[in-house]
């Protein structure tokens, strides 16, 4: 059993997963683990190639809100979420359906709160040091650059359609034998190439832009507190500019650089969190919840809520309130 496989085996057992002897949920060359009925429902699929890379597919949910705390093994990962409801806790960030997210493992603990009843459906690729420090360097000695910075630069984004398509293809694949092994090997290499290209693009953007000053950061922290307090109200960009004393164009640029999302996206994320809470904990009509979180009608809430969680508000409520 290699290092990554041993790590996942230990994590599966700790989290209440058990080996699925049928192993029919996904591609047969991997291994499927089923979540205990006492804890939740669904499957986790894993395929690893020695200590080079592994591919994971999540399709499960927990009966109760669950905090997961991982001391992640050393790796570079990229994941695409079709359905998720929760928040990273260190630092705080809402997880959203439709996003592509990178993660650097092996440096600090990772803690996340997963909301009950809402499926975690995602596909991820992880590459190990033996892949990105040894294998790639041997294959491309004159061109090799360590991809760690490139993976770190992806962060969490809704704007990486090439990667989203690739990971969906991985999740839908059902081959076997050597054809499956070659398929996954090719997709891993393709994913790394996409991340490296994205890293180069992000580096060019950083060089072209200006770094945030101490005053910028202080101003942005104040603006963030203001948005947290007023996100359920009808806030215009002019209102925010008046509070910030920063020009509208510059504010939009440095806010995205600081938070990794636009002001509108940030407000929507806060509103979706509040909508989730009201849907799960109250019997208020969805139209009334829409107005409570800053939208004029239920259809607008439904559109944004589905984009955020992968589910419609009524579907979310039914699952969240299910006994």
How would you characterize this protein structure?
- With 323 residues, the chain is α+β, with helices and mostly antiparallel strands.
- The protein is built from twelve helices and twelve strands.
- It has helices spanning 3-14, 129-139, 148-154, 161-172, 177-208, 214-230, 237-244, 248-259, 263-281, 286-292, 298-309, 313-320; strands spanning 17-19, 31-35, 40-49, 53-62, 66-70, 75-83, 86-89, 92-95, 100-105, 110-114, 120-127, 156-157.
- An eight-stranded antiparallel beta sheet has the order 1-2-3-4-11-6-9-12, sandwiched between helices. Strands 5-10-7-8 form a four-stranded antiparallel beta sheet, covered by helices on one side.
- Helix 9 packs across helix 11 (298-309).
- The mean pLDDT is 89.
Rounded average pLDDT: 89
Structure summary, number of beta strands: 12
Task: Determine the number of helices (DSSP H or I, runs of at least 4 residues).
Answer: 12
Contiguous low-pLDDT stretches (5 residues minimum) are none
Tell me the radius of gyration.
Answer: 21 Å
Order of helices and strands: HEEEEEEEEEEEHHEHHHHHHHHH
